[in-house]
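Listing S7. Sequence submitted for prediction.
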Amino acid sequence: MAKRTNSIKANVSTTATSKARESLTENLKDVRSLLELHEEKGGANPGRRTGLEVLNKSAIVLLTSHWEAYCEDLAEEGLEHIVTHAKTSDVLPKAIKKIIASNIDKDKNELACWSISDDKWRDVLRANLVRMKDERNRNLNTPKWSQVDTLFEASIGLTNISSKWVWAKKLTAAKARQKLNKFVELRGEIAHRGRATTPVHKVTVSDYLDFVENAASKTGEAVNAHVKNITSVPLFGP
């Protein structure tokens, strides 16, 4: 049987993109498969479906996981781009220089300042990203807007990235932040309690999927502009 995808097609871009976005696009196929299965089992006509909410809850959990992975992958990709293409440490923004200085301050070795000589500052930045990953794994942080802002500021010196989440007239950055947090909190209810306080409908999944795709695009654009400003080399695109 051919799958009906008229209402759940991917928002595929024909332009170049980051490796992180390519991975996200691939991962989101799982979410679309759940939506397609929901439509195959319950039909496309309006009305409630019995016994299919588990598909919606699974999709919410997957979406949050894929969004978190995208942000982490993009931050790592952006940092590696800066480390590879920045000609000298002089071109680094103040925020990244603070990251390097902070790592030296934490090192009790009195010769630590020499660790950034001869281009070794590149190794310091890579080590910082590894440290951040370890901290996130220990603290089990969730990908709400404040955590996403912190991730990009602490890894590549890009501040307030969530302010770029504007793609519709009625959707301000503040509303986008609130919307993301509600989705992530819903994932928490499902993952930790096994159920949400209210039923999870297919339309909620579709709304979340659309949000993740748009937020990912705006996040990717911001990172691309940021690293190009530092290195003169874009992460993707012309």
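Caption to Listing S7: primary sequence and predicted structure tokens for the chain studied. The CA atoms of residues 115 and 137 lie 27 Å apart. The chain is about 65% helix and 0% strand.
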